[in-house]
Amino acid sequence: MAKTQTLNPDSQSISRAAELLSAKRLVAFPTETVYGLGGDARADQAVAAIYAAKGRPSFNPLIVHLPDTAAAQRYVHWSAQAQALADAFWPGPLTLVLPLKAGHGLSHLVTAGLPTVAIRVPAHPLARQLLQAFGGPVAAPSANPSGRISPTTAAHVLAGLDGKIAAVLDGGPCEVGLESTIVALDPHPQLLRPGGATGAALAQVLGLAAPGLVTDAPSPGAQPENITAPGQLLSHYAPGALVRLNATAPHPGEVMLGFGAVDGALNLSAAGDLSEAAANLFDYLHRLDQPGVAGIAVAPVPDHGVGLAINDRLRRAAAPRP
Ligand code: TXA
Ligand code: MG
User: Fold this and answer.
1) What is the pLDDT of residues 16-40, one digit of tens each?
2) What residues contact residue 181 under an 8 Å CB cut-off, 6+ apart?
């Protein structure tokens, strides 16, 4: 394929990106969480191309991106709990897994044959403009090769997928920096992946005692055949270099990724701010993951609030590789 085109964030580029999607081509675009690799969710050809570009196993289903709640209701059986969460968190970093409606029209490749689908209404203005301009459901996993660090800049997208996709819409760095929180609602609320919206905030909206939402917390060792969210793949978000957690100083050959008072070559947040750390996490892993670096030693990150999602990603980055 020809070189991937970088589109600047203007109205002409949004139209161009929407045209490419209509032609069943792939376009990476910014969301507030990470960059997504978008394709027409109704077109087998486009969805198959997403799996191929990422080298993603086809048993791992995709999130469908929509402009608003009304659009979401066309594809899934809606509920009072879905409405409460949508009111509180959409547009934003929350993905809802709900039962598919008959005649939904989505490619069966999007759902990997499941009776449910994951849907999300992103908040990023460029994502919203693109969804409006395209006028249909956009399937979009994170725009990185499968199993590697998620992209939070257009440069990260190109580093992994240049030449494999038609275009990337450059919207600068992502504000949240971690993927969306994924919640299944049927038969009961279940946190499938911690993320930008915290479990405590979700529990509060649902009137459940925090952390009561997490009725079946995914275990890091879950096997692929039990997968309901990507976070359950043990080795995920992996840089080339080995990752060592809860480090206070680097070993020989390692570079140090700091947090708070534990400093390093880069510091996720010198002030100890977890949102700042989340926004920096993938970018700093990308930056430290250089040829010749044997390992990345990571300072302890507190395990509360969005720190839970940060530590989830770090554990997977540190897990033994397949
Ligand atoms: O923030 C995000 O969620 C980003 C942006 C681009 O929206 N997307 C993202 O997609 O992280 P991805 O593919 O890397 O992770 C989404 C995961 C899938 O891997 C899958 O395991 C889970 O969502 N998922 C999708 N459909 C599901 C379903 N029906 N039931 C349970 N989990 C599902
Ligand atoms: Mg991903």
Assistant:
1) 999 999 999 999 999 999 999 999 9
2) 93, 94, 95, 191, 193, 194, 195, 196, 197, 198, 199, 202, 309
